[in-house]
Automatic annotation (TrEMBL):
Reactions catalysed, as given in the entry: XMP + L-glutamine + ATP + H2O = GMP + L-glutamate + AMP + diphosphate + 2 H(+)
Protein name, per record: GMP synthase [glutamine-hydrolyzing]
E.C. designation(s): 6.3.5.2
Ligand binding (ATP): S29, G30, G31, V32, D33, S34, T35
Pathway(s) it belongs to: Purine metabolism; GMP biosynthesis; GMP from XMP (L-Gln route): step 1/1
Organism: Rhizosphaericola mali
Occurrences of domain GMPS ATP-PPase (ranges): 2-192
Keywords associated with the record: ATP-binding, Glutamine amidotransferase, GMP biosynthesis, Ligase, Nucleotide-binding, Purine biosynthesis
Assembly notes: Homodimer.
A GO molecular-function annotation: ATP binding
């Protein structure tokens, strides 16, 4: 019978045999899949796993440090790489969503390859691929190891010539989470909403600046906190704030304001392919609107997205 405990135990044994004395490098994203995969590999080979976690400047508020702390707590050998400036300069003045994705994907691969140069002993590349990714890349790209372009970690640089280790290749998401619980990975990380690889860059309509990122991180912080406080976070499949490229007039005391608008998005879904907008309670929406407008300087209007997918997508870009 499949149990998380037996899966973990057998996988660790199998990884020991497969990897032997070799070293593994792996890009970590702070997400469920890469964290569970890395923890299994680490239990098999210890510090011969070399994790790389890149701060692309497009993560949620305080996320980089929080995730590094969790990795440390799990005993993972991970290097945090602050590459914010590289991403911001690559993104400068870009407004087209696909152009942003391309730059982010390419910058990520450049940084990963540069870091990998320092780990010459590595002959394996660890990946948190799960079964739905396998199906998706098979149907989209033919039967190969190519990761969907959507995937958090971007394409695999072929010239790196590494053998793949994918301990979660035959698991579904709920099974990955159960294995994660078994391995002692914190609940908050395991039950996080999906978050796109390009991060907040595709939730800022128009060009990206560090100031806009900071503004959106703050709005997103209050939204996420309110969802948790109202016990709604795990009832929606995904939620996020979107910074709109418009300003509107408001009033604060005796002053006229002319500031930004954020849209709130929350959806229910099974796999992200289709989604319904979440019917969040009015009291919640009222609370979160006040929280954002009162606490985030630069935002004077909050709207709620009531579009389902299709035809709207979950992300606005
Ligand atoms: P859409 O917006 O297509 O999103 O309805 C479906 C799911 O995919 C995520 N998403 C992405 N994930 N890179 C990613 O890693 C991307 O470029 C990307 N675009 C969308 C989105 O957050 C949702 O979970």
């Amino acid at each position: 019978d499949w149990t998380p405990a037996s899966f973990a135990q057998e996988t660790i044994e199998r990884l020991k045999a497969e990897i032997g004395d070799a070293h593994v490098i792996m890009a970590l994203s702070g997400g469920v899949d890469s964290t569970v995969a890395a923890t299994l590999i680490s239990k098999a080979i210890g510090d011969r796993l070399h994790g790389i976690f890149v701060d692309n400047g497009l993560l949620r508020k305080d996320e980089f440090q929080q995730v590094l702390d969790i990795y440390a707590q799990l005993g993972l050998n991970v290097k945090g790489v602050d590459a914010k400036d590289k991403f911001y300069s690559g993104l400068k003045d870009l407004t087209d969503p696909e152009a942003k994705r391309k730059v982010i994907g390419k910058t990520f691969i450049d940084i990963f390859q540069e870091e990998a140069q320092h780990i010459k002993e590595a002959s394996f590349l660890g990946q948190g691929t799960i079964y739905p990714d396998v199906i998706e890349s098979t149907s989209v790209n033919g039967p190969s190891v190519t990761i969907k372009s959507h995937h958090n970690v971007g394409g695999l640089p072929k010239e790196m010539n590494l053998k793949l280790v994918e301990p979660l290749r035959y698991l579904f998401k709920d099974e990955v989470r159960r294995v994660g619980v078994e391995l002692g990975i914190p609940h908050d990380l395991l039950f996080r909403h999906p978050f796109p690889g390009p991060g907040l860059a595709i939730r800022i309509l128009g060009d990206i600046t560090p100031e806009k990122v900071a503004l959106l991180q703050d709005a997103d912080y209050y939204y996420t906190k309110a969802l948790k406080d109202f016990d709604l976070y795990e009832k929606v499949w995904q939620a996020g704030t979107i910074l709109l490229p418009i300003k509107s007039v408001g009033v604060m005391g005796d002053e006229r304001t002319y500031e930004s608008t954020v849209a709130l998005r929350a959806v229910t879904s099974v796999d992200g392919m289709t989604a319904d907008w979440a019917h969040l309670p009015y009291e919640f929406l009222s609370h979160v609107s006040n929280e954002i407008i009162n606490n985030v300087k630069g935002i004077n209007r909050v709207v709620y997205d009531i579009s389902s997918k299709p035809p709207a997508t979950i992300e606005w870009e």
